Amino acid sequence: MVENGRLEIFFKTLFISIIIKNMEKIIEVKNLSKKFKVPVKQGFVRSIFIPKNKEIVAVDNISFTVERGEAVAFLGPNGAGKTTTLKMLTGLLYPTSGSVKVLETIPVERKYTFLRKIALVMGNKSGLSWDLSARQSFDLFESIYDLDHQEAMKTVGYLAEILEVSKSLDLPIRKLSLGQRLKMELIGAILHSPEIVFLDEPTLGLDVVAKRNIREFLRKTNKEKGTTIILTSHDMADIEKVCNRVIVINHGKIMFDDAIGKLTGRYRGRKYLTLIFTEEVAQEEVEKYGKVIDKKPLTYTIEVAGDEQAKVIAAVSENLPIDDIDITHVPLDEIMADMFGKR
Amino acid sequence: MKRLEFKKSIKLRWKIISSCTMFGFKESMAYSLNNWGNLLSMIVYMITYLIFLDVLFGRVKMIAGYGYTEMLFFTLIVQINYYLLFIITQVNTERLDTSINTGELDLWLVKPVPALWFVSFRKINLGELLFGAFPATIPLLVILSGKWSVLNMSFGGVMAGIIFIILGQIIIHCFVFMIAMTAFFTGEGKHARNVGVELSIFGDSIPLEGYPKFLKYIGLTIVPFLVHTALAVSFFLGKNTNYYYLVYVFGLAVFFLWLKTVAWKFSLKHYSSASS
Fold first, then answer.
1. How far is it, in rounded angstroms, from Cα B92 to Cα B125?
2. What per-residue confidence (pLDDT) applies to A163?
3. Sheet with A322-329, side-by-side order of all strands
4. A120 close to A91: Cβ distance less than 8 angstroms
5. Residues paired with A231 in a beta bridge
6. What is the dihedral sign for C-alpha B92, B94, B95, B97?
7. Distance between B35 CA and the closest CA of chain A, angstroms
8. Which of B19, B106, B116, B125 to probe by mutation at the A interface, max A CB count within 10 Å?
9. Domain definitions of chain B by residue range
10. Average pLDDT over chain B, rounded to whole?
11. Alpha-carbon distance B119 to B121, whole Å?
12. Which residues are paired to A25 by β-bridges?
């Protein structure tokens, strides 16, 4: 009996240690802060001879860890500190205080082994030559990352096929659409199979199809290759489709850090009903059943308490000229707007 | 172990230079009509300058102790130095400035390359050498071809002259690069960089012997515009044979290289990166 108990403890310990080993922390951030000095607006002469600066806190004492294989999103309004955090994780910015370790390395040391294992994609910046084709730029990356030519070309072909840009590989970048260019940037960034990919607004300005394509690709890379993905985006769909964890930042501080499900779970008690009418209905009539969130011709979206949903549906169906009703959870967009006090 | 690492580092740097040169050449060939325009403008410029020299030396026999043929040789070294400065330093500092301004530098700083080396030699514009430097120097070489015997050249002087060109280029490269790095703090360094380039070629119109003592002192120390052309030509033509200058200029080059590295590290530490 005692023997069985010991054996059980042994296997439990072994199991836990295997799990811990697999959940290797590859990013460790402790009390990280970043302050910028910005000039204070003064008169022309004063600004030249007695310039004044004020300090702006972009990131304020944040701590978190990321495990290998996670897909994490930084979410927050403009100027929240998302991109600054990302830039400190990649070693582009020196922290004002606190510590960052990525892949057991201090990023700003810019060690070859560290840089070899990461990639950075910025939606509004291009690392490819404007005048040359993507393939010619990839040749340069191949030299930089010391890749085997045949292998690299195979990878380019494979990635281009998934992202549906095979036909554009030999066109000058300036001739490509924004979506095609961004896809090329992605291929160039992950050509060397990085362990962590940092993405700053990767779908900025893209159409629906290109966005979907890139999201699927990122999800696939994360799932199949185990690549850790760190993403900042304003597009909630990017976050919902690609990431399983979200870190909400506002005014440089972390407001929420957990699974996306838990964030949406907080709002599970609320439902959105999209009411489609057969004829025009006055807003006052609809407002009797819930708070109007959105209004289009013949369509209203209202917010109701989850436990009142059935009652409201019955009442609306009986009293208003209903054609169809659609029930949804509170979308992430609305949750964010609620959190950041924009509603 | 250290020797192996050093070898690896040299190999990597060579690979970066050769790949970037090829890449830069392809880029400069992307606009072929522009290149032909460049070639034509250089030919016109050179013919105008040669006529100017001809008219000038029709009235005077010597300028700062240099005769017509010596002045032609001086002009040849001026052209070589100008194009070396252009294809290595000017193009790359211009790119550095734009990269800082647009935030594109971020994407290069995360690549596994020695960043300072990479941004210094990111684009070696061979297209410019082909379409600018050749038309500018070939007419001079043709005119000089029958006049070499007039020039007082010795083996030692020629060797010293070549070394001064190389070291002088390293020095002005560091000088212009450090000025270009102000973009890290101001966000835009185009005009400051232009001042640096103008100062670097300040000594390209008068031979070393024509400068007052004060300017000679400045041009061989803090604003080193006299090394690459004026001092080099003075040695080429045997007007100066004080070989201690070699040791001095070597020291100056090492000092400027050190200063450039320190300035780079300082700038990166204060880099605020253009907002996304």
1. 9
2. 86
3. A291-296, A299-305, A270-277, A322-329
4. no
5. A73, A199
6. positive
7. 14
8. B106
9. 24-269
10. 87
11. 6
12. A67
CB contact under 8 Å between A120 and B110, yes or no, is: yes
Q: With a cut of 70, say whether residue B205 has pLDDT above it.
A: yes
pLDDT band with cut points at 50, 70 and 90 for residue B1? low
State whether A125 and B109 contact (CB < 8 Å): no
pLDDT band at B229 (very low <50, low <70, confident <90, very high): very high
According to DSSP H, which parts of chain A are helical? 2-22, 44-49, 82-89, 112-116, 134-144, 149-162, 178-190, 208-225, 236-242, 260-265, 283-287, 309-319, 332-339
CA distances B54 to A21, B46, B63, B70, B209, Å, are 81, 12, 13, 13, 21
Write out pLDDT tens, residues A231-274: 998 777 788 888 989 999 988 999 889 988 887 777 777 888 88
**% of chain A with per-residue pLDDT over 90:** 29
Q: Residue A15: pLDDT band by 50, 70, 90 thresholds?
A: low
Cβ–Cβ gap A132/B111 under 8 Å: no
Please state, as a whole number, how many other Cβ atoms lie within 10 Å of the Cβ of residue B39: 16
Q: Do A115 and B16 touch (CB under 8 A)?
A: no
Find the helix packing angle between A208-225 and A178-190, rounded to 10°: 10
Q: Does the distance separating the beta carbons of B15 and A143 come in below 8 Å? A: yes
Residue A98 has pLDDT above 90, yes or no: yes
DSSP state of A294: E
The amino acid that residue B101 corresponds to is N
Does this model's pTM top 0.90? My answer is: no
Q: Could you tell me which residue, B189 or A191, shows the higher pLDDT?
A: A191
Q: Which residues of B touch A145 (CB under 8 A)?
A: 112
Task: Report how far apart, in Å, the C-alpha atoms of B229 and of each of A155, A256, B161, B167 are.
Answer: 49, 63, 9, 11
Query: Any bridge partners for residue A133, and if so which?
Result: A172
Across chain A, mean pLDDT equals 85
Where is pLDDT greater, at A135 or A129? A135
